[in-house]
Each structure stands twice: as structure tokens, then as C-alpha cells.
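name: query_chain
kind: protein
chains: 1
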Amino acid sequence: MTFPSPEEELPDTFRTFWLVLVDPVIGLVATGLMLLRRRWPVPVAVVTTLLTAVSIFAAGAQSIVLVSLATRRRWREIVPVTALSVLVSLVNTRVVYPEREPLPLWVEAVLTALIIIVTVAIGYAIGSRRALVASWVDRARSAEAEQSARVAQAQTAERSRIAREMPAVLAHR
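structure:
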């Protein structure tokens, strides 16, 4: 695959049209898809990632969707979408929006992968924290239920003791 040289770039009118009109619309579509990220996390992550191949404006929504996907802490979902994100980012910077003097491909790939991995790590940490808080809530509920059971058992034992002593007290009087 060859990359266009700066002399072979798209005409300025098309490029301006794309940057001013089409790219923001694609970004709005990605932002709208962000609302569906909890119902269909993987398809929304894949679609928003693919939209970032042709739109800079879609990158923000894609980052949020990627963090949201990582909070689920399922590696079989996270790894393919992360790899797709790196690939799509390279396509965006090398084909759709090429620079006049780009970094070497391997440097750009490593930097992109590091940024995306940090994004995934943030989402994974959020998911871990949510799981920890949920376990604390479950432990508190079970401790509260055990305490209620102990109180009920103590009340039953006290009533039984009083019921056993009642005939002796009445007979004494």
C-alpha cells in the first residue's frame, strides 16, 4: 500500500468540504452512538472505532466508548477492539489526514498503542473499582442480614426462657 505524497493530496475544496461539513457530522453520529454503548457495547465500540478512520471528531466519542467497554473487564472484547483502534488510528493519520513529514510508522504505532492502552487501563480500573464497591455492598448486606438473624434468634431465646420461667413465678405467688 502506498501513501499519497503531499503533491498528490486531495484538492483543497474537497478537503475543506470534508473538514468543515462531513467530519463534524460523522463526529455527531459517533456521539449519538455513544448513548447506546451500554446496551450494545461491542458493536458500538467497533462502529465508533471504524468511524474514527475517517473522522477526527469521532475520536472523543470513541475514547469514551472504549473506556466504557473496558469497564466490563472482558479481555476477549477489549483486545480486538484495542487492536482495531490502533490500526484505524494509523489509517487516519497515514491515509485520510496525512502529514507532510510523518513520524516513522513503527514510532507512530507504538505511541498510538500506548495512548490506547492507557485509555483501556483507565476503563479497566474503573470497572475494578465498581466491582470492589459492589462486593463491599454485598458484604454489608449479608452482615446486616446475619445481625438481624442473630437479633431474632436472641429474641426467640429470651421469649422461650421467659415462657419456661412463667409457671414457676406464677406458682410461687
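note: Residues 95 and 122 are 29 Å apart (CA to CA).
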